[in-house]
Amino acid sequence: MFPEVHFVTVFADGPGGGNPAPIVVDAATMTDEEMRDVARRSGHESGFVLPAPVGSGCDLALRFWVPNHEMSMCGHVTVGALWLLDRLGRLPGDEVRVFTPSGIVLGRLGGPVGRRTVEISQPLGAVDSLADDRVEFLLDVLGITRDDLAPAPVQNASTSRVKTLLPLASPALLDALRPDFDRVEEACTLVDSTGLYPYAVSDPGRPVFDARQFPRSSGYPEDAATGIAATALVTGLLAAGRVAPNAGAVHVRQGRAMGRPSRIDVRFARDGDAVTGLRLGGAVALADGAERSTR
Question: Fewest C-beta in 10 Å: which of 66, 152, 242, 245?
Answer without folding.
Answer: 245
